[in-house]
Amino acid sequence: MSEQPVSVAIVGMGTVGTGAARVLVEQPERIARRAGRPVRLKHAVVRDVKKSRGIELPAGVLTTDFARVVRDPEVQIALLLVGGLHPGREMTLELLESGKDIVTANKALLCEFGGELFARARELGRTIAFEAAVAGGIPIINTVSQCLAANQITSIAAILNGTSNYILTQMIGENWPYRQALAQAQSLGYAEEDPTLDIDGTDAAQKLVILTQLAFGVKAQLTEFPRKGIDTLELSDLKYAGELGYTVKLLAVARLIAGQLEMHVQPTLVRHHTPLAEIRGPFNAIALVGDVVGETWYSGPGAGQMPTASSVVADLIDTIAGRTRLTFPRLEVWRDPPPYAVQPREKTSSRFYLRFNVLDQPHVLADIADILGRNHISIASVIQHEAAGSDNADRRTVPLVIMTHRTTVGNLESAERELSRLQSITPPHVRMPVAD
Amino acid sequence: MSEQPVSVAIVGMGTVGTGAARVLVEQPERIARRAGRPVRLKHAVVRDVKKSRGIELPAGVLTTDFARVVRDPEVQIALLLVGGLHPGREMTLELLESGKDIVTANKALLCEFGGELFARARELGRTIAFEAAVAGGIPIINTVSQCLAANQITSIAAILNGTSNYILTQMIGENWPYRQALAQAQSLGYAEEDPTLDIDGTDAAQKLVILTQLAFGVKAQLTEFPRKGIDTLELSDLKYAGELGYTVKLLAVARLIAGQLEMHVQPTLVRHHTPLAEIRGPFNAIALVGDVVGETWYSGPGAGQMPTASSVVADLIDTIAGRTRLTFPRLEVWRDPPPYAVQPREKTSSRFYLRFNVLDQPHVLADIADILGRNHISIASVIQHEAAGSDNADRRTVPLVIMTHRTTVGNLESAERELSRLQSITPPHVRMPVAD
């Protein structure tokens, strides 16, 4: 082992930055053995040096001055662990241009500016490692870009947002409405005070964009594919899905279908007792299909201080050991021209779960079945329970749940336009795809 | 990309060798792009060049002459895909000494001679890659030795033999006795004609030895830890376990307990709805706990032609790209002195499932409970169903199932010595641990 230490800076001492610092400070011997050289944490850039972080750093490490890192020629690697797009993008460019390799956990940054940042790093002969940006402690970036290198990945189906998965698990397990499960997630720290990006599907979609780049060489925009969160889900739909033998998961999907790339993030019915259905609580899971290996599954903590730090420090070790220098230039983060186009939304095909609120009167099911049939949608099963109560019997509505055979979103949208003109149906309509 | 091709030889064109050849022949562009150089399959060493393999190789590639590979200075990497210990060991040494890097799937070889072969490779500045030796298509070697480098692994609990898992799944699912499930596995090709090494736990134990080396730096011998297969399991025990809320799996376990390494391979009760319990059919799964990341899970096809070839070709790409040269010298396959001793068998502690055949007469349960109690074993639950039939009522035996609280193997063995003297108990006794 070379005794010459590598100097490292952490930019951003939030949850993940503090976790990474903790591993470096508490396990110097382990890290040195595996990296081949001792690691010296030289700077940790924070907004407020006085804030308590529950970790003891050597004097002079904490600083509010980002420029100190940029100017310090001894610092070879920067762990960029700030969130958000700005100044994350500008910091990354400055660090690259001053000759530093980057390790980051910032998925939003890579989703939005990955193309620019990766290109700039390559021009400068520098590297960006980002295992921690997707699925926290699960080594999925390494798996896709290195371990499965014999394969063309053909399908990714993944639970990439632990907050949403926790909320769904609680709704089903505890019979709680969405609001109550969200409040519980917030009180336990599984959901942020402003949980928008987690529960509206944005966080999962950003991670899917990164995985899709690596697996398919396609840089999809967030706006190019359907994205729906769990924030509008009703408990009753989870229960009907359960009756039909399915669990509802916020599923991120990217797969090759007839030479095009089907992509979406949305609540999806997953058959009971399949690996993805069994993931309960604040965890992530990824099912990958490769054309050589077949299907493999990966799961674990998708967020949290130490799981994410585990991936950050693994990237740091890879960067010091020289592996990232070999891997990064060959990541297939985009190919020109892109090998696959994103499939138009309306072409997406699957079975679907539909719920209508219908007036409890004759001929409603026949009208709906007729409209579906004329739009090439055939019905696989129906749930309609007897209406409870008897008040206002004329106008009372009952839920009608229909599971379709395989059809396209285009057919469904066409049918839904006709259905919306029926007096006997009142909003909302619910539509969720069924995972194959 | 350098246009200079890398010449490669395959030694052993059995199932896996043929699969690896297929990927190289059918996906030359993909492999070249990811390895950074074109790959030329120059020799494929077989016993019989005339045997049909369902794959078209260029003229002159097939040969029965292993020495051709050794003598050919153009060949930089050999895929050693023969089974068994000899001449696998001698071939590996010859290949290393003639300057070739090795990729292998031979777990028995690495379990037995890994220490010698790895040391020789390091002396010669060569590398040995062996992702395919454990868990087929699941990238567990890379995960343990690279992706989780920030961690000290503290626990491995794994289903490492797909044949056994298939048989157990069929016994429970179809209500079949062991013999019938084995016959089915053989007819489907999931079990070999001579299935001994799969079903007696040897195959899983060999893989556990390799994982234990990487994760704990300890070279355990096969004889140092308890090993038991599924070949003596009775369907009734799977059913009683089910009644208690557990599935029986052939579990390979290595974990740190109070500074010692607990290791065993044996049928083990795993609680329903946990990730390992849900692995059905001929698959493998590994639950890893790291001291930074927490618990992560990996699963997929643990054997088979193309899944295993996926790992072989990934290793080949890593070796060509130069990553193996960085990783291999630093694998912690042993540390001197070994950082942990293997825990003596009798110290192993868990809850246990016990089944006795007892005479259906008064005071038997009291006698057993008394002996267990005097040996510091307390009873958590009991199943004793009413005896069926009434023939020969004096001497009829009934099964008595006892779930204990946590105790040690030493306490149990001491109790079992006393119990074996009771006239009211007849063999066999069944004892299985319960996974935490």
Walk across the major sheet of chain A and give the strand order. Answer: 3-2-1-4-5-6
- Overall morphology of chain A: elongated
Total domains of chain A: 3
CATH topology of the largest domain in chain A: Dihydrodipicolinate Reductase, domain 2
From the 3D coordinates, which CATH architecture of the largest domain in chain A would you assign?
2-Layer Sandwich
What is the tally of helical segments of chain A?
Answer: 15
Specify the CATH homologous superfamily of the largest domain in chain A.
Dihydrodipicolinate Reductase, domain 2
Largest interface between protein chains, with number of residues from each side: A-B, 52 and 52 residues
| Average pLDDT of chain A | 94
**Biggest sheet of chain A: strands, sense, closure?**
6 strands, parallel
State the main characteristics.
3 domains, homodimer, Dihydrodipicolinate Reductase, domain 2, six-stranded parallel β-sheet, Rossmann fold, alpha/beta, 436 residues, Alpha-Beta Plaits
Describe the structure.
Chain A is α/β, with parallel strands linked by helices and 436 residues long. Chain A has 3 domains: 6-136 and 326-330, NAD(P)-binding Rossmann-like Domain (Rossmann fold, 3-Layer(aba) Sandwich), CATH 3.40.50.720; 140-302, 2-Layer Sandwich (Dihydrodipicolinate Reductase, domain 2), CATH 3.30.360.10; 345-434, Alpha-Beta Plaits, CATH 3.30.70.260. Chain A contains 15 helices and 17 strands. In chain A, the strands form 3 sheets. Chain A has a 6-stranded parallel sheet, sandwiched between helices. In chain A, strands 11-10-7-8-9-12 form a 6-stranded mixed sheet. In chain A, strands 13, 14, 15, 16 and 17 form a 5-stranded antiparallel sheet that branches. In chain A, strand 4 (75-80), helix 4 and strand 5 form a beta-alpha-beta unit. The longest helix of chain A is centred in the first third of the chain and has 17 residues, at 107-123. The first copy, chain A, is elongated and about 80 Å long. Chain A starts with 5 loop residues before the first strand and ends with a strand. The model of chain A has no long low-confidence stretch (mean pLDDT 94). Chains A and B meet through helix 2, helix 6, strand 11, helix 12 and helix 13 of A and helix 2, helix 6, strand 11, helix 12 and helix 13 of B.
